[in-house]
# Entry
Amino acid sequence: MLPRADATDRLKEAKREHDCSFTDLAESIDRDEVWTASLVFGDVSASEAEVRTLCAELGIDDEAVVDALQREPYRGETEASIPSDPMLYRLYEIPQVYGDAIKACVHEEFGDGIMSAIDFECHVDRIERDDGDRVRITYEGKFLPYGKW
# Structure
């Protein structure tokens, strides 16, 4: 049984060799580029058809890779740590600085609850501006109110 990490390493290498974007790969499996990148990095599992199409786009003909990407992924780290990569650190920093304010605004708008990270979408967009392009990251998750009993 091929370890999931080895399968994702094969996908990442094939993506580099084929010089294709996550958007290109996403179009081939009819998914969003962020979800597709999560599949390539091993953070989500996919249907057999999605995995086979992705592998075909990348020239990978290996049943072990197909099997590995359909297994249940492990999400998160075994120990919490602050990311050292500058881009990841900034994504970590945003809730550290604005998290309480965002939570208060969600609570005012929806009531006491959480945003689902299971029934969830994330999109990355380029916003072109004269003073320099900007990154827009949109999180969209189902609101789940806390139950009362």
The CA atoms of residues 24 and 33 lie 8 Å apart. The chain has two domains: 4-70, 86-145. Helices lie at 4-18, 22-29, 33-40, 48-57, 63-70, 86-110.
